[in-house]
Design a protein that fits this description.
Blueprint lengths: L3 H14 L7 E7 L3 H13 L3 E7 L1 H9 L3 H15 L4 E6 L12 H23 L1 E6 L3 H6 L4 H12 L3 H7 L1 H8 L3 E6 L2 E6 L6 E3 L4 E2 L3 E4 L7 E5 L4 E3 L2 E3 L3 E5 L2 E6 L3 H8 L8 E7 L11 H4 L5 E6 L19 E3 L8 E4 L2 E5 L2 E2 L14
Parallel strand pairs: 1-2, 1-3, 3-4, 4-8
Antiparallel strand pairs: 5-6, 5-18, 6-10, 7-9, 9-15, 10-13, 11-12, 13-14, 15-16, 16-17, 18-19, 19-20
């Protein structure tokens, strides 16, 4: 697949998402060997006066490594990659594997080794807080199948989503950020959901193409011990090689006290990873006008128009609520009427109903105003 849309995407990633400056170093990490975009990124990095570095990985090889993983081995791998990452000014992570379930048969203890070594030392400790970074997928037939689309149709959808005017979206998000920063109590209702929590004094952060492509969310975090009630997620949620469905979580004073799903035993093992895994590290509102239905890819699903995600695990430093964990699991609930509807209240004022903002100042974030 070679067309001008790839060149435009590379230009946007280098010049808008990570804003690469002359003399800056950028690490381009690719799972899946997608030569066209990697090559275009290298060329754009040079054109911007930067210094590109490329790290190529493969999911099948990664699985083989994980199956035999030892903690001392992965600590050494983490030290190696952390040394590289610590010298970078920017990072572009391109994920393009053919099988989202490649790690389905990797034992939990091996996945935990990866999370506590490379996941922590390289990404949570260095890449996220200390570089300008963006992560994205690349279209392939596997993604098209998950989206229930033809390969060509999915490619058109992908570039509409990834090359939209994120500058326009960025400006439109300011009003939602301002309102969330003034909000104390949030209540969310819908089929199987009645959830209340506080976001008081925790910053709201807009995501408009700088860290994820596709993008389109505003996130914050609940006050750690303020979450009470129940939430039922209506979107399939892949995690650690398994797709969870019908997930229902019950909270008391911030903690998940009951969790059920299509594999209740498995989901509770994940929530028992560490103490922070049963508390929530992120609350975010999705607004991308082109993403309407789940495709079992969280980079897309968490941006679905009319959705929100409520994330057990690690919080972000810029929306810090004190929760630490080796997991960060974005699970999505879609509140549009075609998914059952629902309401979102800020300080007892209805701000969104059935996925559409209903107060005048927020209408700029409804889909017809962002396309």
């Amino acid at each position: 697949m070679k067309d001008s849309r790839i060149e435009l995407l590379a230009k946007n990633l280098i010049n808008y998402s990570v804003k690469l400056q002359p003399g800056e170093k950028v690490l381009i990490e690719n799972f899946g060997l997608q030569r066209e975009l990697v090559t275009a990124l290298v060329k754009e990095a040079y054109a911007a006066g930067g210094h590109p570095f490329v790290l190529l990985k493969d999911q099948q090889v990664d699985r083989a490594l994980l199956l035999g993983a030892r903690e001392d081995q992965f600590n050494l791998m983490a030290d190696f990659e952390a040394n590289v990452m610590s010298q970078m000014d920017a990072y572009i992570g391109l994920r393009s594997g053919d099988n989202i379930n490649e790690h389905a048969d990797v034992p939990d203890d091996k996945m935990k080794i990866h999370g506590s070594t490379i996941g922590k030392k390289v990404h949570r400790d260095i890449r996220v807080p200390k570089t300008k970074w963006v992560v994205l997928r690349y279209p392939n037939s596997s993604m098209a199948q998950l989206a229930k689309m033809s390969t060509e149709g999915f490619e058109d959808f992908y570039f509409n989503v990834c090359n939209l005017d994120y500058g326009k979206m960025d400006h439109a998000m300011n009003v939602l950020v301002e309102l969330m920063n003034k909000t104390d109590k949030v209540r969310i209702t819908g089929p199987g959901t009645d959830l209340s929590f506080s976001i008081k004094d925790i910053p709201a952060i807009k995501c408009s193409g700088q860290m994820n492509i596709p993008d389109g969310e505003v996130y914050t975090a609940p006050v750690r011990d303020s979450v009470n009630g129940v939430i039922t997620y209506n979107t399939p949620s892949p995690y650690q090689g398994f797709t969870f469905e019908n997930v229902k979580l019950t909270f008391k004073d911030g903690k998940i006290v009951e969790a059920t799903a299509n594999d209740t035993e498995r989901i509770n093992r994940i929530f028992d990873t560490d103490e922070g895994a049963r508390f929530v590290g992120e609350f975010a509102i999705g607004v991308n006008p082109y993403i309407l239905h789940p495709m079992q890819d969280i980079l897309f699903d968490e941006k679905i128009d009319g959705s929100f995600h409520f994330t057990p695990g690690q919080c972000y430093d810029d929306a810090f609520n004190g929760n630490h964990s080796n997991i960060h699991w974005d699970m999505v609930n879609i509140q549009r009427s075609d998914y059952g509807g629902g309401e979102m209240y800020f300080d007892d004022v209805l701000v969104r109903k059935d996925g559409r903002f209903v107060i005048k100042e927020l209408e700029v974030l409804n889909p017809e105003n962002l396309k």
